[in-house]
Amino acid sequence: MPESVSGAAPAGAGKPPAVTTRTEARERAARNRRLVVYGARVAVLLAFLGLWEVCARTDVIDPFNFSQPSRIWDQIWQWVTHGTAQGSLGEQIGYTLYEALAGWVIGVIGGVLLGIALGRIRFLADVFGPYIKVLNAIPRIVLAPIFLIWFGLGPASKVASAVVLVFFPVFFNAFQGAREVDRNLVANARILGADNRRVTLQVVIPAATTWIFTSLHVSFGFALIGAIVGEYIGATKGLGLLVAAAQGTFNAAGVYAAMTILAVVALLTEGLLTFAEKKLFRWKPADAGDGR
């Protein structure tokens, strides 16, 4: 009996290391793939910038109109070290971020509340649906001059522009998420005695959260666009004003520099949203094709 026990132990003890080895191999392959993806992204960017610089220096393209990466970097460095005509670069970025964040928060809250309400209450959807479709059909960028007339050159007009750009994608996703809730879940909740308020708070909203988060990634970019367009039309501070001022002096490097700073800000906020989404949706299986 002792011999059989001692003989069986190694066979059973050999399985966990094999499973661990396969898990480590999968993690190593995923890590290597991420490194390859990041390396390819950097290579594409460097190749693009290098080709742009060479074409500008050899007069294949006009450096006055198209500028070149070295001049753009010099412009950014000048803004960082000496500031802009409107104040420090950090102040311009903070001003634009404040307008974009304020408009984004207001637009998201309004879009989620109305989207869930109309998705849950068919009567409201039938009444307000045509009006929302008409408003959504209006090119919302053209509202920026109207907001400038209503609210002046201050941040309120830019916040309003950001709100109208953010509201509709969030609204339609929240509306669709509320409509796509599994009816069996709703029926089971009602069997357990849940009223309409509890069904909405404990079943519908959690089920629609994935839809809502999908719209958040896109909508923050729209908020930045609303703030920038509003500042470009008329403002006292902000990145949009830097673009307008650079354009007014035919400073192509200044225009591209402001666009570069805006792109970096957008990428950072996108990263924060992705991080928050992964923390909230740990249960969600990772996408096999996700290179992030």
TrEMBL record:
The lineage of its organism: Bacteria, Bacillati, Actinomycetota, Actinomycetes, Kitasatosporales. This is ABC transporter permease. SUPFAM superfamilies: MetI-like (SSF161098). It is found in: Cell membrane. The keyword DNA-binding does not apply. InterPro entries: MetI-like, MetI-like_sf. GO terms for cellular component: plasma membrane. Keywords: Cell membrane, Membrane, Transmembrane, Transmembrane helix, Transport. Residues 7-22 have a biased composition (Low complexity). Residues 93-274 form the ABC transmembrane type-1 domain.
